Each structure stands twice: as structure tokens, then as C-alpha cells.
Amino acid sequence: MNALGFNEQQLQKMKHQPGFVAALDQSGGSTPKALAAYGIEEGSWSDEDEMYAIVHRMRTRIITSPSFNGDRILGAILFENTMDRDIQGLPTAGYLWNVKRIVPFLKVDNGLAEERNGVRLMKSMPQLATLLKKGKSKGIVGTKMRSVINKLNLAGIRDIVDQQFEVAAQILAAGLVPIVEPEVDIDCPEKARAEAFLKIFILEKLDRLLPGQLVFLKLTPPEQDDLYADCVRHPKVVRVLALSGGYSRDEANARLRRNWGVVASFSRALLEGLTAQQSDAEFNARLDGAVQRIFEASTVKQEPRKRITAERKGVKAAA
Hints:
Layout lengths: L7 H9 L3 E5 L6 H7 L10 H17 L8 E6 L1 H4 L2 E2 L2 E2 H7 L4 E5 L11 E2 L7 H10 L4 E8 L4 H20 L3 E8 L6 H17 L7 E5 L9 H5 L3 E6 L6 H9 L4 E5 L1 H4 L8 H20 L4 H15 L1
Parallel strand pairs: 1-2, 1-11, 2-5, 5-7, 7-8, 8-9, 9-10, 10-11
Antiparallel strand pairs: 3-4, 6-7
Helix pairs in contact: 2-3, 7-8, 10-12
């Protein structure tokens, strides 16, 4: 195990292997919605404990499916309650890596604060140090925390990036690798401009990271194709991940294909169409199809410079 929390095999997998990251981290208020999409309506459980037991059965069905494996899936992001439970007699994080060869990550934020300056920062995380220690003891090697940009407001976007990297510093100090997730809402007015400023502020922070420190970025598919190519190339970035952000799976995949070097980290778009009522054969086939389409959208791309050169040659040949 190196200072980053990854062992060398995990680090090389996350940096170089084709694939994507599965987000299985719905928590708290988002769990009933996730279960409803899975075909289990609210009211099917008597209390929160029973609700989390049901959602763990759903996640267990996904994770143990033969379609869910380390050949196409690099990592999986878990909610604390899922991390604390077992799959087939093994702690969930241990099952993911030791059985499936999928690198386990943990969602660590406590949700979003009320909007201010056009953004929703993360709520305070007084339990963070304890959670990081527990996660590390259970085999977690990285973390994820989300905040949201709703409007073009430079002060607000700066606040988002500052907070994300302040928390990232704590996570790095604990020996884990953070996934920095400053989401731009897909309905944000002037989304393209908000993303352009977000990129500038992120690159400033990346340039200030200390030797040996690495992060992931998890970002909304941008309006300008290949906007985040400089982040993909940055030596402090393990991988740039794309969230689906409310786009349908087809739309999210289409946008992902237009961004070189970016791989998916989808939640709802990954699980779209899966239900509790399906037979195992139908469930596994649907999941396999979703995994394959997301895998292809994450991997079949051409570097911007090479693509632009090819396009220019094509224009000259046509002339």
C-alpha cells in the first residue's frame, strides 16, 4: 500500500485500464427515489433500517451480477451504510476488490447546504476524520464529495472549488484519494461560461497540490467538447470522471463520447431500466447492456489534437 491508499495494482488500474466508475452511493433522501426507480414504492418498508436493508439487497444484486466485474468497471462508490454491510460473507469493500477486482470508494459528504451565491456548498462534516479512519480500516481507498453550481456566479464557483479542495486536503492527509465533484447543474443558465470559469479555478488548485498528491475530478459533461482535456492531461489527476447529472443514459453517453480521456461515473444512468420484478436472467442481460454501452462511451475516443489534425487533413483533401 502506498501513501495514497491505493496499492500499486489499484493505482495502475485506475490510471490506465479502460473502463468506468459505478456510482452506487444514493443515501438518505435519495434512497426512496432510487428504490422507486427499481420498482419498490415508498411505504414498502416500516422504518429507515428496513429501507436500507432493501436497498442493500438491490445493491447486492447489482454487485454480484456476472455483468458487474472489473473487466469493464474500474471502481464503485459506496454509501456508508453499504460499506458497513457484507456481501456473501465479506465486507462490501473487500468483496468489490478481492472478488470483483473493482476499486472501492466512499461518499463522505453530508449533503448540500442551502443555495448562496448561485451554488450549494457541502454541509459541514464534523464526522469526517472518524469516517475516513473507519473507511480505511474497511478497505476503502478513495472518497467522493459533491457540491452543485446552479448559476453563473464567480464568487460562488470560487467558494465551491475552495471548499472541495480544502476537504480534499483532509482526505489526502488521511491517506485516501479524493474524488472532487463540483457538479454544474444541467439546467444552469450560461452553463458553458460557468464551466469555463470552473475549469480555470480547478487548474489553479491542481497546480498547488504537493508532490505525491493525486485527485480525481468528477464533472458534468461540458457544453464545449473537450473542455476538460487540460485536466485529463494534468499530472495531479488520476482520472476525470463524468457524472450523468439528470441526462438520460443515451444523452449522457453521447456527451461522454465527445470528451477525450473522460470516463463515466454514472448512478441513475447505469441503473436505468433495472427492476426488482425482473428475473435474474433479464436483470443481468439489461445490466450487461448498460455496462457495455457506458464502457464504450468511456473508451472509444480520439485525442483532441489528433482528431483536429485528421479533420483538417480531411478538409484539405476535400478542397
